[in-house]
UniProtKB/TrEMBL annotation:
Protein name as annotated: Aminotransferase class I/II-fold pyridoxal phosphate-dependent enzyme
Entry keyword annotation includes Transferase: yes
A GO term for molecular function: pyridoxal phosphate binding
Cofactor(s), names only, from the UniProt record: pyridoxal 5'-phosphate
Lineage of origin: Bacteria, Bacillati, Actinomycetota, Actinomycetes, Kitasatosporales
Cross-referenced SUPFAM superfamilies: PLP-dependent transferases (SSF53383)
Protein source organism: Streptomyces paludis
Length: 417
């Protein structure tokens, strides 16, 4: 008798053809809006047109005084660090597990990323932050991994006690909230990506949120020299004299990306509500499945569901390795089941192990990171299987095929041992 498992010659559980998950959703209205931008402006050096419209809409959506668009999330993070006065040799505490761009711009400031162990949800563990604080610590950066808000209440208290800037990387978490407050608004500044698959997408782009005027002027100085710096920084501000050159970099968003992001922002809450429904549906169905476990969501935490993450427990499936388990899922046609790749504990990355060749004389040349430094983050990373979260009711049949695929593999795991 042949196994029903597709990996062993059976028929795949997922029969849907074509792309299973595409992001961002683009319809004819989106197409028309982006195309209209071609006839309006394709370069906007000032805060005008679609850039001003997008920034106004972001300010209203997040309830903040300033939103500044940039060319990418990486640029937004770089600008946020510089705006927060992170200087050479300063230390910034960052989650050990995040997409590296949360922290990598620090190398360009000659500042030191200090990696902090993460908790079961993959987010920075606030109980591990204080032991890392030194006289050189300037800021704490938090990522809301996979769109699940980190414990910003505890982090804010630590930042206040030690007089540190709290910064947020909201790149997974547009529209997520904690106790009714949106991620990206808890600290001095929030930096976001608008990259392709992110919950709010302009294809490429990013933005910084802040309520603080000086931080706003510094982001403009860092990323928007000349026209914007001249018109938005008050003449009597110490930065005004640098308006022509800024700090030497120009990191503007493209107006076509701004048009796409503006169109998407109007739909974001609808997307998030749809994702929440499907995440609940998936959560119910994975609840009693051996081997795969969701990390419980505390009360008051509303994620953006950038990904639904499941922790794989091999001991519940006879010790079956995650690689083979994942292969079996893919063979079932459930190709959106994914293991995190480059979004990994950063002590795995050459830049954090050996920055010297890229940044000679960088302070981290003395104290580098190595495999095994962050056992909890590394364990979670190695045992995570994630799914994108669909947002439309008509996706439910496909979602159920994915559930069937997972159930089938867990029921037949012995054949894979
Ligand atoms: C995508 C991402 C970034 C970088 O954003 P880009 O727009 O790709 O430069 C930074 N941090 C996190 C957590 C991200 O997911």
């Amino acid at each position: 008798m042949t196994s029903p498992l597709a990996l062993l010659g059976g028929r795949p559980a997922v029969t849907a053809t074509g792309t299973h998950f595409a992001w961002p959703p683009i319809d004819d209205t989106t197409r028309a809006r982006v195309a209209a931008q071609l006839d309006t402006a394709i370069s906007l050096p000032g805060r005008s047109g679609i850039v001003a419209e997008l920034e106004d809409a972001l300010q209203a959506y997040f309830g903040v005084r300033h939103a500044i668009t940039l060319s990418s999330g990486t640029a937004a993070l770089h600008a946020a660090y510089w705006a927060a006065h992170v200087n050479a040799w300063d230390e910034v505490i960052v989650p050990a597990w995040t997409f590296h761009a949360t922290a990598s711009p620090l190398f360009h400031l000659r500042a030191v990323p200090v990696l902090c162990e993460t908790g079961p949800d993959g987010n920075i563990d606030p109980t591990r932050v204080e032991e890392l604080i030194t006289p050189r610590t300037r800021a704490v950066m938090v990522t809301h991994l996979w769109g699940r808000p980190a414990d910003t209440g505890a982090l804010r208290a630590i930042a206040e006690t030690h007089d540190l800037a709290l910064l947020e990387d909201g790149s997974h978490a547009h529209g997520a909230s904690l106790g009714g407050q949106k991620t990206g608004t808890f600290g001095l500044a929030g930096a976001f990506s608008l990259n392709g698959p992110k919950p709010l997408s302009g294809g490429e782009g990013g933005f910084v949120l802040t309520d603080d005027d000086d931080t706003y002027y510094r982001v403009l100085t860092f990323a928007h020299y000349n026209k914007r710096a001249k018109s938005e920084i008050p003449a009597d501000h110490p930065l005004a004299r640098y308006a022509v050159t800024g700090a030497g970099l120009k990191l503007r968003i493209h107006p076509l990306a701004a048009a796409l992001a503006h169109d998407q922002l109007g739909r974001l809450d609808g997307y998030l509500a749809g994702r929440a429904e499907i995440a609940r549906h998936l959560g119910d169905r994975f609840a009693d499945m051996p081997g795969l476990h969701a990390v419980p969501m505390p009360c008051g935490v509303i994620p953006s569901w950038y990904g639904l993450t499941l922790i794989y427990r091999p001991e519940e499936l006879g010790g079956l390795g995650i690689e083979r388990f994942h292969q079996a899922l893919l063979a079932e046609g459930a190709t959106e089941f994914d293991r995190p790749g480059s979004t990994c504990p950063m002590n795995r990355l050459s830049l954090y192990r050996q920055p010297g060749p890229l940044f000679p004389g960088h302070p981290l040349s003395h104290r580098r990171y190595a495999e095994g430094d962050f056992p909890l983050a590394e364990h979670s990373y190695r045992h995570t299987i994630k799914l994108p979260v669909w947002h439309r009711g008509e996706d439910l049949p496909l979602v159920d095929q994915y559930v069937r695929a997972a159930r089938k593999v867990t029921e037949h795991y012995k054949e894979l041992l």
